[in-house]
Amino acid sequence: MGRVTTSQPRLLLIDGHSMAFRAFYALPAENFSTSGGQHTNAVYGFLSMLANILTEEKPDFVAVAFDVGRKTFRTEVFPEYKAQREAAPEEFRGQVELIREVLETLGITTLSRDNFEADDIVATLSTQAGADYETFLVTGDRDYLQLVDDSTTVLYPMRGVSKLHRFTPEAVEEKYGLSPEQYPDFAALRGDPSDNLPSVPKVGEKTATKWIAQYGSLDGLIEHAEEIKGVAGQNFRDRIEQVKLNRQLTQMVTDMDLEVGPADLGFKVAVSSEVAARFDELEFGTNLRERVLNAVPHDAAAEAAAAEEAPDVSVTVVDTPLAEWLEDKEHVAVFVQGDGTPGAGDAAALALVDSSFEGLQIELADLDAADDAALAAWLESDAPKYLHEAKAAWHMLSGRGIELQGIAHDTALAAYLLRPGQRTYALTDVYQRHLQKSLGAATEQLSLLDDNQLVEQAGAIMELAAELTSQLQEIDSFELYTDLELPLVSILARMEAAGIAVDRDVLETQRDAFIEQVNEQERAARELAGDDSLNLNSPKQLQAVLFETFDMPKTKKTKTGYSTAAKEIEQLAATHPHPFLDHLLAHREYQKMKTTLEGLIKTIQPDGRIHTTFNQTVTSTGRLSSTEPNLQNIPVRTEAGRQIRSAFVVGEGYETLITADYSQIEMRVMAHLSADPGLIEAYREGEDLHNYVGSKVFDVPVDEVTPELRRRVKAMSYGLVYGLSAYGLSQQLGIPAREAKEIMESYFERFGGVKRYLDEVVVQARKDGYTSTVFGRRRYLPELNSDNRVARENAERAALNAPIQGTAADIIKVAMIRVDKALEGMASRVLLQVHDELVVEVAPGETEKVQSILEREMDKAIELTVPLEVSVGEGKNWDAAAH
DNA sequence: CGTGTAACGTA
DNA sequence: CGTACGTTACACGA
């Protein structure tokens, strides 16, 4: 609007490093980083700026130039050139490479050349463009002002990167009192601390401007050097050679031999799915992605234009009677709306869409008896149904007395297997992620519902089912999906619906006891601190008491001060005993127990049972997670903790609880994956693993492995599964780093297969971009190739752990399916899964049978090179059933 | 009121 | 400077 359009093509040249750096300092690094620790603030800021400029300037040709390293022809002439610059901050590392990758994905040319700076590339291209192009140079480096002319404008960031100042010849003149050609003369004379170019004493910006203006150029000034009076004049005469060198360095190279010219810098058409994948990797939202994508030519542009007229999902709503419509449908996408709370769900409305995208939308309250019965019968039949988050739908329908069967697709699960570790798998997000189309979320309130809103959701599920199926097949994960994750959906739904019985009285009695204890510890601690309103839960207040009132030695630093974690307090108590510390630690434990108990009591439903939700799409490794409440972290290690466990009891009509767990499953998976002969032998011989490993590592007979040695070996064995370092081991064991290193070396010497495996896993993952479990479950770890050391090492440890933890997760999922099948026809039922443990509620008379089913089916879940070991316990409550 | 951090429970 | 989670409470900024 308002811009004079010329017939000339528009050329945009960006100094990539310069602008990345500006972006880096414009946005706080700590607010932009991926879950793996790679900072992305410069990437984000750069792309945001790029989107703005592209939209504003609408260039026909674009290139972004980058420096290659520090060494250039300039440093050869003048080794001090830019030598004072410190290494870029750690947080900046890797971001330039990420920017280049995104630019390439966007179809924008990037250029760099050994021995030259980005300046020279830009200067050469802009010179080649001459008057034939309207050229825009984007940079935070004022040396570029020498390139400004009638057809070349420099866009220079003023504050942050959002406001760009336009330097035309007039603007340069106005700001510096010099012409663009005079600018490099001025810069050479003034010197430049940022490039480490020396200045002339007594000659600053003012004098430099005056002299250059007076004599027209540096050459003119040098010719008349003898005329200049005063100390400044003498200083200049003394340093003419340095100034000449400055001028030489400031001069940009305008005649590089580049393999491309301005006309070669057109956009390549960006593939929006690839752009989406890049942005997902960087964990950027869809907002920036849309802005950037819309600023460049891309494949979905045509679709998007069409989409403005027609909705993305195109479904025909019909008014065929329900029962008739359902006849001989092969597959149907189902979208259910309602409340998916386990044990308390309800369905309000649903939509059905068939494979020809013909659909119905039904409010359940409106159905007549015949249709109601037909619908229920169909939902409970084996007829294949495609859903998104089928477990929630199961609970909704369960509220209407319908037990959903025939779950043939769950597009949330499919999306999870394709891209684990995403923050959300909501239908609209998955739709956007995998089909690059947008879908409005359905209104939750029934009264506000459009006539076809639910049908659109079901249509999206139908579309996604086809797309995700082929994507899963491409990565050989379709069987994992159909044979493992999908069958688990209804098993988990039934577990959640069953819930686990608790003894409310026991929980409340325990809670009251802990309240007493908490109050007592709090009173004592407040008295000692001399502050009767001290909040022991406030790290801030605690720091004040510990390090100011009591003046104790400082603990480990945290972001907000000094740590008040139990571990640190314990250390403090060991070196500086103080009753306040004892009360504090006691308070911590009781307080934790108290809140755990209060949380649990709140979640008891009217049936006297707690119904957790198992999430199947949360973890990046393949484990389940448990929420509302989390029943996978109920205390067990302390006596007080076991008391809480004892409140989880066998329900009415049932006889007992059985728990069955895999012993050392991750170590066994490690033995299998590493194929280490030593570990395999230990398990095959049925040795106590840690004693066996201890005897090898410390070179003593098995029966001479002391408890202390065993403890160290155990810590190390488990640590290795997590990517433990020698330093970490020394910290955990409280031994010198040297000693820890020796133990690890000795371990790797005796168990070379483990060492080889762990190294290999990272190498392979770096090459592939992902790790795989025995069952083919992938975890993508792009940050293995990050330049950011912290991010990269985090990813390496994740790569070590993912195949092991993930395979163990796969195994127990297989076991759950087998156990569920074996329990068919019996009244006993699985209630909980805690990663390597199943909790079963046993009906009268079925104890022995259930026990043998668990032992058999869990054992047969997979055949590894080492045996699995399942241990089973039985009792009236969860604690008593432990073993 | 929502968001981030510290702390701490589990496998 | 050991992986994977969820919940609680506090502190802070909109």
From TrEMBL:
EC number: 2.7.7.7
Annotated 5'-3' exonuclease domain residues: 8-268
InterPro entries in UniProt: 5-3_exonucl_a-hlix_arch_N, 5-3_exonuclease, 5-3_exonuclease_C_sf, DNA-dir_DNA_pol_A_CS, DNA-dir_DNA_pol_A_palm_dom, DNA/RNA_pol_sf, DNA_polI_exonuclease, DNA_polI_H3TH
MF GO annotations: 5'-3' exonuclease activity; DNA binding; DNA-directed DNA polymerase activity
SUPFAM superfamilies in alphabetical order: 5' to 3' exonuclease, C-terminal subdomain, DNA/RNA polymerases, PIN domain-like, Ribonuclease H-like
Name of the top EC class for this enzyme: transferase
DNA-directed DNA polymerase family A palm domain residues: 641-846
Catalytic function, reaction form: DNA(n) + a 2'-deoxyribonucleoside 5'-triphosphate = DNA(n+1) + diphosphate
One Pfam assignment: 5_3_exonuc_N
GO terms (BP aspect): DNA-templated DNA replication; double-strand break repair
Keyword check for Transferase: yes
NCBIfam families: pola, PRK05755.1
Protein role: In addition to polymerase activity, this DNA polymerase exhibits 5'-3' exonuclease activity. In addition to polymerase activity, this DNA polymerase exhibits 3'-5' and 5'-3' exonuclease activity.
Annotated family: Belongs to the DNA polymerase type-A family.
Name the record gives this protein: DNA polymerase I
